[in-house]
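Exercise 7.
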Amino acid sequence: MSSSAPQDTGHRLWSVDEHLADVLGAVRPLEPIELQLLDAQGCVLVEDVTVPVALPPFDNSSMDGYAVRTADVQGASEEFPAVLTVIGDVAAGSGELPTVGPGEAARIMTGAPLPPGAEAVVPVEWTDGGTGGGAAAGMTPASAAPEQAGGEVRVHRAAEARAHVRARGSDVQAGDLALAAGTVLGPPQIALLAAIGRGTVRVRPRPRVVVLSTGSELVQPGEPLTSGTIYDSNSFALAAAARDAGAIAYRVGAVADDADTLRSTIEDQLIRADLLVTTGGVSVGAYDVVKEALSSVGSASSAGSADPGEDDVEVDATRMDFRKLAMQPGKPQGFGTIGPDHTPLLALPGNPVSSYVSFELFVRPAIRTLMGLPESEVRRPSVRAVLKADEALGSPAGRRQFLRGKYDAESGTVSPVGGSGSHLIAALAHADSLMVVPEEVTSVEPGTELEVVLLG
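Solution. The predicted structure, written as tokens, is:
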């Protein structure tokens, strides 16, 4: 796209694959940055992380109970319990540890280090808890009965060596690979990083995606409708889809069908966008203003003066293509870069289903590419499934059709949900997949195997 002004390449039909390749060819992963752990959630790791210290770093108890020598409890039973002298408590975080000698035991808490001399832990339920009665249900809190850190305990069952002991390094050993580059950091991965002492991590940041819907007929949910108006659903759907893809999404309220207003809004949003998405205004109608607005975004300073002041921001010329794709829904599409940083902008059609399908096919892969994910994780997964329907499904010749479907993994079948209309948003809400009908196919009989793109 070498031209500085938008190009309408509608004289030919682009294939879905050509358009996607064009989009991904212009998108590069974001530069890595160092982030605090919680700020890195959802980001992609750019370096291998190795374990500096073993986990756990010391032998510790997996139960609340008593640390003992195995010889002292050998043959113990309820009828003939082993009677041991309690020499103190070992709590999680304990520093100096008592040494357990012959005939002795130490009260020990879950996670506490195994004291010297001890070979196993007997759960408190296997003992009388130092009360002199029957089997204990639990330990008396140390603050309530500190004297029970001494005295005697009766053990009713034998224990093998290392019983209820979590060995040092049983989770990971020092030098092990904790997480490989390319890992998306979710809660378990954040937990592991914290456990091995990492306070920060080097990642590619989550892309910032700004979503704008266009149309003077659009009203925000919660406001009253007037004659000829409808609620703006596209910006909500696409912002939610961007978040689902892994981005930080900013939703801009609907912009009226005025080129100057749209142009100004887009320029204002560039400061916080790694990717811009518009919906509506890309077809051939008299009020499809996206083409008109993008024909001159940044052609002068934001103030429009020949001698911009220091508060004015100069924006590079737009490079946009508007084209028709051999697909249904979603035939009209726009793509290019905008502003001084050449921020990618995808202009999607305004019909709700067209907009959402276009997002899944083109915007989601762009977001995942910005994140730095491997190619195998850029697109939605797809499977082969058998069409389960009452009648054949029609499809226009020369168009790749994407029909909403309900996929049944157990039976390997997919059923249509709703019709093919690009305005049928209710059907979209109940679909979990897209059935793909190839360009050369005009009718799909029940029982035919199809490609199915999984949305969940």
